[in-house]
Here is the input.
Amino acid sequence: MNRETLHGWGRTMPGVATVLSPSDETDVAAQLAAHHGVIARGLGRSYGDAAQLSGGFVMSNLDLGGVSAISEQGVVTVGAGVSIDELLALSIPQGWFVPVTPGTRQVTIGGAIAADVHGKNHHVDGSFGAHVLAMRIVTPVGTFSITPERDAELFWATIGGMGLTGVVTSATLRMSPIETNQVLVDTERFANVEDVMASMLERDAQYRYSVAWVDCMTKGARMGRAILTRGRHASRDEVDSPNLKAPGTPRLFIPFNAPSGLLNTASVKVFNELWFRSAPKRRENEPQPLATFFHPLDGVRDWNRLYGRRGFVQYQFSVPDTASDTVVAAIERLSSSGVPSFLAVLKRFGPANPGLLSFPMPGWTLALDLPVGPAPLPQVLDDLDELVLSAGGRIYFAKDARLSPDKVRAMYPQLDAFLDVKRRVDPEHRISSDLARRLDLTGR
Here is the structure.
């Protein structure tokens, strides 16, 4: 077990976290027994404070590795510290793809379970937890092998539980078969957000993958103009050079932090105009590599430096189908605020899984990247919280950095059931995080 110190500031209190690097389940159990105040951490791609614990112990899962042989049915057991990138490097050449992937491959399997990540196919395949057949988890009261049938309460508290029930050490997944490393993509431009949402409602069921880029800087009849891309995996006879080569390492990188204020209202408007005009009005069956379609930002290392030293806030909410007007209202609030939105992504969600704190609900989700700096930003985010709350929606914990605890119980009605499970496996409240402290998810 290696140990180092991590200096940082959490939302709850400033301090120094001690980073632990256990090598196996026995080591994990020993560290949980020895320390009060522990949280697991993968590759640190959560946008907020979910994997931070100021003044406590952060337990890296990166040494919890290993990938089993993939069965003929696509079943594989993977160490919690293995990244989606590492898994795909092994699985794509064998004709298998992860059943659900977020927008980056640089997420560990343990992190994907903790955040119950979703992708462009939730309306068809659900979130990551729906494809977990079993997992091993070390808690302060013992180590468990759990499935959706064996200790279902702990299983579904862990799926989307932000690491607060214990440390996942491995998981058994069912992968998806593929014949090539390409996706056939249909692209279409829409004049406004109402038009793109109407098309998604009408036709998304015909596609396995669907996502829309939305321009939150336009107003009036062009408010929320969008580029919608939808696709499916290509078969061998549908592409000119079928192969199963895995994605390579990024060739581009951002070597320094951009000047503060580079992404301002004027520059983002120019970028959005160029981006919208560069997309085809309509194009069908365009072959795209898996990496281009699923993980475009992974092609640019340190892309976050474009936001400068102040960084950015990512804000993602989901609302039910009956509250689709909330999406329009949120975009209207942004477009009228003067707060630049460099990236806005709209997707459809299908049925939710039983995860007690899982984020997706049937309906819509909108994710926003907002540079830190504009004076109206805090008020805009507070206004968006109220819109989401009044619509019966919720905020994604994995991307939250500033939600207030009084809103959490309304957004997550199964919170008490989750806390009951947490108290059962962590009666001394050894597992915590800055996010858990801030939103009162500790179970005390």
Summary: The two ends are 29 Å apart (CA to CA). Residues 265-278 form the longest helix (14 residues). The chain has a mean pLDDT of 93. The chain has 13 helices and 20 strands.
